[in-house]
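Reference record
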Amino acid sequence: MKPGIAARFFLLLLIVSREVLSGTVQADEPPLSAIDERIVKEQAAFQNRFALMPHKPSYILPLSYASKVNQAPFEDLGGDAEHLEVKFQISLKLPLMRNLFGNNGHLSFGYTQVSFWQAYNSQVSSPFRETDHEPELMLSFFNDYRLFGVRNRIITLGLVHQSNGQLGARSRSWSRVYANFLFERSRWAFSLRPWYRIPESVEDDDNPDIDQYLGHGEVIAAYRLGEHVLDLMLRNNLDSPNRGAISVGWSFPINERVNGFVQYFNGYGESLIDYNTSISRIGLGIMLTNWL
């Protein structure tokens, strides 16, 4: 190295060293995780009394094929339910109150709707085969507990009611209290949500055996790689006869504004009307809001 070049190099090194020691130049902060980003957005939403936040994923599957479809509701319509239909889910959350316990404890209201629309069924004027409504009240605590590289970021206590809004023999409903523990590690996020069904009287219980099919909790995991998100849901009654469900989803970018979505479901409880029927379903469509 020539003397002039060496002198300039060491002068530059001296300047950079002085800037670092004085605090002018700072190391880049690690990027926020997907859950960190969600917490920041939710905290900001509490400042806006009219803010609506995503809750569970929202999507529409214009092409959704099920192996079995409940034909009973169509017997009086003079037609049959078709296996190909439209499935969509809309899920939103409204922040209500914050910092109920010191600087933590945030109360929110959530609503999720899942619909199954016989859009291609010209025999019976394309009716909605089933729509399930799920309002819930949630008390969330943000934290940062760490164990073996896993971070527990949110603990939520909730009260949830789910119903299909029907009468008579088609009526399905149940209410639960639950605790949801949300964890993350690297690109992974996963939650453990055990629940307890609130007992009902024999006269009011539309589906007394629903626990035998939907169990007492579920596990959800999501993995984000760039703009791609893979998700997995598992349920099991941990009893005999053994029953459960699995759902696998993949969302992927189509362009800068639209994400595609593929979903596969197998097992019990995809809808309330068919909670005691095991089905397989594959769907293709658009993801509106995701877990991550």
Q: What stands out?
A: The chain has one domain: 34-289. The longest strand covers residues 128-147. Residues 12-28 have pLDDT under 50 and may be disordered.
